[in-house]
């Protein structure tokens, strides 16, 4: 199931450090994280227990936020770090209903251009991986 980014991927190690920090958050535990690049920029999908009060966005869109460079996550000029945050219930609905927001993630997974960065070993994680990898 796991795919591996190229060892020359300029953002992979920074993504791993970021995900490691997010794993330490206790109030909204990380279930899984997937890393991929789109147009050269780093994207990270994190499925977080309790995120968004475990609600499903009625507009059919996942929560996305982009960040510029920082000391903790240095980026090349004009690049942004894109985080896509969701909860187990919402991502399952997004997969089942084919939300457009999930298209980039699914495309990267299906062509082997995504890296599984974290999995908490839970039943939620196993179910989501199975759905993502079809």
Give unreliable regions as ranges: 1-7
**Portion of residues in helices?**
25-40%
Helix/strand/pairing category: alpha+beta
Per DSSP, the total helix count is: 4
The overall average pLDDT, rounded, is 92
- In percent terms, what proportion of residues is strand? 25-35%
Number of strands: 5
| Oligomeric assembly | single chain
Q: In what order do the strands lie side by side in the largest sheet?
A: 3-4-2-1-5
Overall, the morphology is globular
Which sequence of SSEs, written as H and E, runs from N to C?
HEEEEHHEH
Radius of gyration, in angstroms, nearest whole number: 14 Å
Question: How widely separated are the two ends?
Answer: 11 Å
Query: What about the largest sheet?
Result: 5 strands, mixed
What can you tell me about this protein's structure?
With 134 residues, this protein is of the alpha+beta class. Helices cover 31% and strands 25% of the residues. The protein is built from four helices and five strands. The protein has helices at 12-23, 88-97, 103-110, 123-133, and strands at residues 30-38, 41-48, 63-67, 81-86, 114-119. A five-stranded mixed sheet has the order 3-4-2-1-5, with helices on both faces. Helix 2 runs parallel beside helix 4. The longest helix is centred in the first third of the chain and has 12 residues, at 12-23. The chain is globular and about 35 Å long.
Briefly characterize the structure.
By secondary structure, the protein is of the alpha+beta class.
List keywords for this structure.
134 residues; alpha+beta; 5-stranded mixed sheet; 25% strand; disordered N terminus
């Amino acid at each position: 199931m796991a795919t591996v980014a190229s060892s020359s991927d300029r953002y992979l190690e920074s993504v791993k450090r970021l995900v490691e920090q997010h794993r330490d958050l206790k109030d909204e535990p990380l279930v899984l994280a997937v890393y991929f690049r789109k147009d050269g920029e780093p994207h990270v999908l994190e499925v977080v227990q309790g995120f968004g009060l475990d609600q499903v966005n009625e507009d059919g869109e996942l929560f996305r936020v982009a960040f510029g460079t920082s000391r903790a996550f240095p980026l090349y000029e004009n690049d942004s770090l894109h985080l896509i945050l969701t909860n187990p219930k919402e991502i399952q609905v997004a997969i089942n209903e084919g939300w457009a927001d999930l298209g980039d993630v699914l495309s990267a997974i299906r062509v082997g251009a995504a890296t599984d960065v974290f999995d908490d070993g839970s039943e939620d994680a196993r179910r989501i991986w199975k759905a993502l990898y079809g």
